[in-house]
Amino acid sequence: MAQAYSAGLTVTENIVLRKERILPLKGKVLVKKGDHVKADDIVAETLLPGKVLPFNLANKLGVTPGQLEQFIKIEAGQQITKNTILAATKGFMGTGLFKNEVRSPVEGEVESISAVTGQILLREPRIPIQVKAFIDGIVTEVMEDEGVVIENKSAYIQGIFGIGGETVGEIKVLAPAPDAVISASDIGESCAAKVIVTGAFTSYEVIKAAQENGVKAIITGGIDDQDIKKILGHDIGVAITGHENIGLTILVTEGFGQINMARKTYDLLKKFDGHKCSIHGKTQIRAGVIRPEIIIPLKFDEKELVVDEASLPSLEIGTLIRVIRQPNFGRIAKVTALPEELTKVESETMVRILEAQFEDGTKMVLPRANVEVIET
Q1: Closest CA to 330 of 253, 267, 227, 219
Q2: Angle, in degrees to the nearest 10, between helices 225-232 and 204-212
Q3: pLDDT in the model for residue 120
Q4: How far is the CA of 87 from the CAs of 16, 95, 112, in angstroms?
Q5: What does residue 206 show for φ and ψ, rounded to 5 degrees?
Q6: Cβ of 313: how many Cβ atoms within 10 Å?
Q7: How high is the pLDDT of residue 1?
Q8: Which of 212, 223, 92 is nearest to 163 (CA)?
Q9: Helices (H) and strands (E) in the chain, counts
């Protein structure tokens, strides 16, 4: 039988990870190949150009653009403060009477001066950008002036959706079971700076309590999309998430609504309760899929850092899958048969299907396009 392939979602206790940490534009790399780094270590830095401010200097000085050159006190490329005199007239008949001075409205530098328009362009101070390692590991490659590659061995979980950026914290499992739902009263001072695991669902009230108590991140089976809208102040767009400034990161492992966290995912998090992890909520569901991730670093020897070539996850008898379409969205099942012939579904289209058995023992026929493989 020909091998079948499907989109995959990785949940594994042991994997070799390779992460590129790249600057948005060329700068300075602060580490070298072979260095051992921690997640919070800064590995590269650069300066982003500041905002440009057009400023009509001739008009402010009360002269024509053609006259500006004789009164100008600065030059292109010069560093300036808010006290810097940009231009000044000498006053009436050189006596100093009616003298006019124009000072810079911003701190930064002079970008350019135009004698034609009488305008100057002022650039605000450069913005420092630092790239952290994000994961504990070893620098295995240095890209000069651009960034590094860091490798490690980790327990690794991909989520189905997330919001919020990169953060690092200690895992704290609050939910006693994968189908449990915690309340806001379960979150207190002991959750500060922690990555909490909340079970099958996280409500708006739980998210607010987490924010108020300094929680670094929430890992949950399901969430209400309307609660996310409340937190963000707008609907979830189709663009990449992960840049939201809401004070914490949220990673959803199963989907929208109250959905039991997959037993394998919960057990893995429970096993590493109290361990440090790196987590982010970056998600992109269009071309170039990006998954939110939980990375729990393990002890390893450098000889173990051999990354297997990427391959498409395969559908086989016994493969663990997750349904990604309604009405069974988020449910976990095991493949029991893979018929080769095309089958007509409700939409009257002919598709390839599979037979699967859910965790409760019920069986169902599903289009292969409606599932994703849970990689182990």
Answers
A1: 253
A2: 40
A3: 94
A4: 61, 17, 14
A5: -65, -40
A6: 18
A7: 33
A8: 223
A9: 4, 29
Candidate from 13-27, 56-70, 87-101, 221-235 with smallest mean pLDDT:
87-101
**pLDDT of 109-123, one tens digit each?**
999 999 899 999 999
CA dist., res. 157 & res. 271, Å (int): 13
Every domain of the chain and the residues it spans:
12-46+152-299, 53-123, 314-375
Question: What contacts 255, CB < 8 A, 6 or more positions away?
Answer: 160, 161, 222, 324, 329, 330
User: What span, in angstroms and rounded, lies between the C-alpha atoms of 298 and 153?
Assistant: 5
Cα 133-136-138 angle, rounded to 5 deg: 85
Q: Which CATH architecture has domain 314-375?
A: Roll (2.30)
Q: Which residues contact 73 (CB under 8 A, 6 or more apart)?
A: 85, 86, 87, 88
Which amino acid makes up residue 117?
T
The half-sphere exposure of 189 on its side-chain side, counting CA atoms within 13 A, is: 0
State the pTM of this model.
0.76
Selection from 294, 146, 142, 301 nearest residue 218 by Cα: 294
C-alpha pair distances (Å), 92 with each of 89, 97, 98, 99: 9, 5, 6, 7
Query: What letter does residue 290 receive in the DSSP assignment?
Result: B
| pLDDT tens readout for residues 264-305 | 999 999 999 999 999 999 998 765 678 999 999 999 887 777
Count of other CB atoms within 10 angstroms of residue 329: 17
Q: What is the DSSP track for 221-250? A: EEE-HHHHHHHHSS---SS------SSSEE
- Tens digits of per-residue pLDDT, 81-107? 998 999 998 765 555 556 789 999 999
- Read out DSSP for 41-110? -EEEEEEEPPPEEEEEHHHHHTS-GGGGGGTB---TT-EE-TT-EEEE---GGGSSTT--EEE-SSSEEE
Query: Which positions ≥6 away from 349 have C-beta within 8 Å?
Result: none
- Mean residue pLDDT across the chain: 88
For residues 193 and 149, give the distance between their C-alpha atoms in angstroms, rounded to a whole number.
Answer: 27
The pair of structure tokens assigned to 106 is: 């911003």
Question: Using 50, 70 and 90 to split pLDDT, how confident is the model at 228?
Answer: very high
